[in-house]
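Subject: design request, 108 residues
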């Protein structure tokens, strides 16, 4: 895939995600609240300026709203960054589990 095809694929993905958000009756403020960021970060992400937040939006759409197949398109559009993001998310999940166990021990 050459650079122009990759850019076209990325733009199509951003357009698709924006369409899904609109079809679900969501707006940027709702997404910002759910993800704990400000609306400006959501806007940047939906326009290609913040890959990590964009991935979080895609994950939210998939996990909370049952939207399917976006992640597969995202991986082909943005490449290896997704693997790194997934690894970071796994590490965060592990840390959260450890914290939950520590809190549980403190409560006893």
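Subject: RE: design request

Done. Sequence follows.
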């Amino acid at each position: 895939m050459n650079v122009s095809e990759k850019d076209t694929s990325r733009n199509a993905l951003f357009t698709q995600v924006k369409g899904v958000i609109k079809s679900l009756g969501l707006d940027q403020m709702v997404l910002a609240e759910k993800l704990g960021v400000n609306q400006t970060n959501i806007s940047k992400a939906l326009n290609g300026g913040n890959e990590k937040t964009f991935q979080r939006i895609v994950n939210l759409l998939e996990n909370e709203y049952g939207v399917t197949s976006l992640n597969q398109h995202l991986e082909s559009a943005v490449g290896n960054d997704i693997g790194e993001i997934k690894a970071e998310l796994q590490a965060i999940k592990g840390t959260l589990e450890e914290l939950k166990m520590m809190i549980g021990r403190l409560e006893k």
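The longest helix spans residues 81-107.
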